[in-house]
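Anyone up for a design puzzle?
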């Protein structure tokens, strides 16, 4: 099970909902993470996508709102879920 303090790098993900409708359905492997973005390795190359304003779906059909994970990775991992 994925929680907000999980490590996301290396996980497959898909954008389930977004304020930018052109991003919905975009999928790939998380290659890098910053406070505000994920870098996805997709079939069309690397794409840097903001965490906020997106809903992320992971391999086990778990959905996480980007607002809840929009923190620096090292700070997010320390938070109690």
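Challenge accepted. My sequence:
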């Amino acid at each position: 099970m994925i929680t907000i303090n999980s490590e996301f790098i290396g996980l497959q993900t898909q954008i389930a909902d977004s304020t930018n409708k052109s991003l919905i359905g975009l999928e790939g492997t998380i290659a890098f993470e910053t406070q505000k973005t994920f870098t996805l390795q997709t079939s069309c190359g690397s794409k840097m996508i903001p965490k906020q304003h997106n809903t992320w779906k992971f391999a086990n059909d778990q959905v996480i709102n980007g607002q809840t994970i929009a923190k620096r990775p090292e700070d997010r991992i320390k938070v109690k879920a």
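A detail worth pointing out: The chain has a mean pLDDT of 92.
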